[in-house]
Amino acid sequence: MIISIVDCYTDEPAGLGVPPYLGVYPRYIAGVAFSHSHQCFYLRIDDLRPEKRGNSTLTMNSTLNANNATRILEGSHIIIVISGMHTPGKYLAAVPGTPSEAIRLLQGYRGKKILTGPAAFLGTGQTGGRIVHRVQNSGYDLVIEGDAWLWLEQYLTSKEISGGYSRLREFAVKGSEIVRQIQLPIIAEIETGRGCPRKIGCSFCLEPLKNKPEWREQNDVKEEMASLAHEGVEHFRLGKQSDFYAFKGGKPAEIEQLLKGAASVSHKTLHIDNVNPALAATEQGEAITRLIVNYCTPGNVAAMGVESFDQSVIEANNINSTPEQVMKAIASINQCGSERGDNGMPKYLPGINIILGLIGETKDTLEINLQYLKRILNEGYMLRRINIRQVEVFPDTEISRQGGLKYLKKNKRHYYKFRRSVREDIDHEMLKRITPVGTILKDVFMELYDGKHTFGRQFGSYPLIVGVKQRLPLREFFDVRVVGHMLRSLVAEPLTSSSSQIDHQAN
Ligand code: SF4
């Protein structure tokens, strides 16, 4: 049987699959297909978009199957589309596809068309600040809300099989073979757990609705990474979990075992994602922070779901940390992680996510948020990233029952000024603090032209965007020297080309 995957890319609070990230969904599905000796082809939505052909920037994400996409799809018995943006952002060199775009591009192919990924569970939001509806009348033969890899195994074997991480083990390893169909370099998103350890989750979050809490075995993670490394992957992020610090009860010994195993696999980048400030603020959390600094590579970011500094909003939305816990976590991570590493970036810094439009938000909420950010700046800390997004209202969440977009609509007219103040008064200053003029950043991967300028970034968790005022070859690594700062990106001059990663194509 021929099974094709069409990756429209995914972005969730727990898990990223937008290039250069390769998410877990395609790898697990391919792992089942390969394990049962079926042919499996990996395509990306960019391989199917006719307007992208022949444009060097826009074909950045093409797979090695791009030129044969039509023939592959004509011969496919099953076509599995992966899609879903639950925390949509702006992407440097990728435009995610939607289920409707994919089904339009797949018209005329006879294979059974299946939709999976976050969009299949509770719809997809491409921009933020909207009510998201379930996918209906989608044109697909089947919409799989749960694990598509499990469905595929049941379909191929005609057996009832129970899922879970013990069943996933072999497929996660086998799925690494899919990397042979992609241009390297990529960064592999690695799953360590699912679900939220809190009994009642935050008002806007889908994770407690999607998954019961479960953690992977450390050795399974290590074996999957080793298998990916064997296929040439050098960049990894332990990013698919709701809170890295909560792994197996947040016990430092368990987390050390996880990190030690991951670090023993050959790699250039080892980062993490998702940190609950309430845990990072504790003594146990500080021990975990030290382990992360010790085992991971520099430029690492603790993206913290702060969401709001306004106590009344925190309570109304059942958010997990108080502003003082956030301040403590920021101090602790700065203390342990601010030393500069060998790629030019501080080793490990905190980041903050803020959500606008939450239950109970007022104009004062924005002022309180700004005052806390100013306090962080004035107390001399470094914040690597302040991510501000408008709430997405998904079906069945508490916010959908308590007014939906009511607060967002009421306060929207104040958002522009708030964002502007954060960008000008906080972000810009932080950027100068983190990467002063003269800083040398190593291994910046060039991804995009804009006029005569080239934009790139290092591999990792929330890397800084670097602009160079000349056209450099795309898909090559350069060491650069910082010469200036935009609001949220750097201006740099190239030193030497440090390209060390070779595409399969060139082999
Ligand atoms: S702590 Fe809140 S945002 Fe994080 S996974 Fe749980 S419910 Fe979601």
Rg over alpha carbons: 22 Å
- Taken from the alpha-carbon principal axes, the silhouette is globular
State the helicity in percent bands: 25-40%
Give the low-confidence spans. 500-507
Sheet-strand content, in percent, reads: 15-25%
CATH C-level class of the largest domain:
Alpha Beta
What's the number of extended β-strand segments?
20
Named once each, the bound ligands are: iron/sulfur cluster
Main sheet makeup: 6 strands, mixed
- Provide a count of the helices: 17
- Overall average pLDDT: 92
How is this structure best described in words?
- 34% of the residues lie in helices and 23% in strands.
- It is of the alpha/beta class and 507 residues long.
- The protein has three domains: 164 residues, Rossmann fold, CATH 3.40.50; 193 residues, Transcription Regulator spoIIAA, CATH 3.30.750.200; 58 residues, OB fold (Dihydrolipoamide Acetyltransferase, E2P) (Beta Barrel).
- The longest helix has 29 residues.
- The C terminus is likely disordered.
- Bound molecules: iron/sulfur cluster.
- Iron/sulfur cluster (SF4) binds next to α8.
